[in-house]
Amino acid sequence: MIKGIIFDLDGTLIQLPIDYEKIQKKLKEFFNISDNLTPLIPRIIELSKNDQNKIKRSFDLICKEEKSVSDDFKIMDGTLEILKFYKSKNISLSLVTMQCKDALTKVLEKMEISDLFDSLISRDESFDRQNQIKLSLKNTGIKASEVLVVGDRINDIESAKKVGCIPILKINEIQKIPPFECKTIKNLIELKSIT
Q: For residues 133 and 149, is the Cβ–Cβ distance under 8 A?
């Protein structure tokens, strides 16, 4: 029986118009390199060589961009309906994001849905998706096997599986092939047929 759902934010519930080229340019200058930082967060950690000050300054650069576009996001079809549906069924809802806490707070306040979530984990608490899921489980006290994790990236579902949660891949424009068998949805409303 499903007792909780952990949602990813950007690409799953909303679409943030983040200018990654601008972020890449600033980070290249900061690290004095010419190649792109891909994947972004792991590459920042690698280049920072565990220097917490460099990690913080890099993340601050990204957060500034995230906050600047936090008024311009698009709510994905079915987001509000599905969140309210599960809340009415007493399913615990959690949110994990690689965005900063300030951008997350701004988005949730604009959507007027902060009160729907029992746990909110941003990049400020952890920049590792697997750890973010573990923190959400700890905050809600629900067993991993009773929790769905809904995300739009392969890393989301791989992390969910490693923790023992039930992974659901939300496919947006580009068809993604999961590295293992898992349920996929194209619209959040399809979750109703899974639970």
A: yes
CA distance 170 to 165: 15
Long-range contacts of 38-46 (CB under 8 A, 24+ apart): 41/98, 41/123, 41/127, 45/127
Calculate Rg over the CA atoms of the chain. Answer: 17
Whether 58 and 88 map to the same domain: the answer is no
H-run or E-run covering 94:
strand 92-96
2/148 Cα distance (integer angstroms): 7
Domain extent, residue 63, equals 20-68
Residue pLDDT, tens place only, 58-104? 999 999 999 999 989 999 999 999 999 999 999 999 999 999 999 99
